[in-house]
Amino acid sequence: MSEPFLPYGRQSVGGDDLAAVAEVLRGDWLTTGPAVQRFEADLAEHTGGTPAVAVTSGTAALHVAYAAAGVGPGDEVVTSPMTFVATASAAALHGAKVVFADVEPDTGNLDPHAASAAVTSRTKVIAAVDYAGHPAELDELRTVADSAGALLLEDAAHSIGGSWRGRPIGSLADLTTFSFFATKNLTTAEGGAVVSASEQLLERARAFRNHGLVRDRAAQRYPDEGGWHQEVHAFGLNYRLPDVLCALGSSQLRRLAEFKRRRAAIHTRYDKAFADLDGVRTPVTREGADPMWHLYPLRVLGGRRRALFDHLRGHGIGVQVNYIPVYWHPVFEDLGYRRGLCPNAERFYSEQLSLPLFPDLTESDVDRVITSVRSFFGG
């Protein structure tokens, strides 16, 4: 009998999560109610107190954050190509020009020197990505952003619960975005958040996630229309995360430390198992980084990544590649972006393979992955 398929990522939902969701379903609120505010407050406990705005997805968080930053036509956003397409596409949807800067060859994170070389007088935002859960070089990128008069955005879809040089993720950038998709470090099924220490940026984020509606009479252009009156002064969208999913998020946050410990333990087991294996390179951890490992990005050398991918998939192990360089997508190719733009990112992509990593992975599951990888190399 063949072994069951082992995914590379999976949600971890327990009895407390189910009870939290059921409580909301039995109550008066399904959409925007008290569970939203509670979830936002709970998130702030993990971001050094930085306030949060809950939204419907990590992509929505990026779209909202760029809107809060005032990104529009004529502006440029400098970012990494080693990320999911949304980091760039959300800026492009606001009319900005996306400028890709190369990554560090070891972490896959945005290289501050490359970012510095990419900024111009039109740069509005520098958007770093915490690839695989390892924090980007946020201090150096802060210097680059400040010198360019730009905002620093941290796409922390992989890294909630981590820290950089003793400061929690969410407390370092002007704007930080999170994703709570099913495979992420905690889940609301679909969901995300924008956090910022700036009240002005937060207010813009809150407005954009709610169609841009203005209900405060003091801020309305025509406040005497009637008690029902609401206005839109700037366009927004419906990116409200409902109560039922926020309840799940608050419950999940209570297990975030547990999730982090388990992910780190699996990561360490992989590191030790492959340390002596010719043909691969294990992930690095920079001094000062306390990652929240979302992925285990094994580097497969010698052009054998695809063969190992097929080998593991053939054994029922759901490895994945994260990600193709963003500008390789035809939508960016059609805008004039060409391969060869960021050599480090392209080399990283050609070697990267994500092994299964999630809290409910058992020790026997980890053994199975290790055995299958080593057998491919004859180790």
TrEMBL record:
Its cofactor is pyridoxal 5'-phosphate. Keywords: Pyridoxal phosphate. The keyword GTP-binding does not apply. The keyword Transferase does not apply. The active site is at K184 (proton acceptor). GO terms for biological process: polysaccharide biosynthetic process. GO terms for molecular function: pyridoxal phosphate binding; transaminase activity. The modification N6-(pyridoxal phosphate)lysine is found at K184. Pfam families: DegT_DnrJ_EryC1 (PF01041). It comes from the Bacteria. Belongs to the DegT/DnrJ/EryC1 family. This is UDP-4-amino-4, 6-dideoxy-N-acetyl-beta-L-altrosamine transaminase. It comes from Prauserella flavalba.
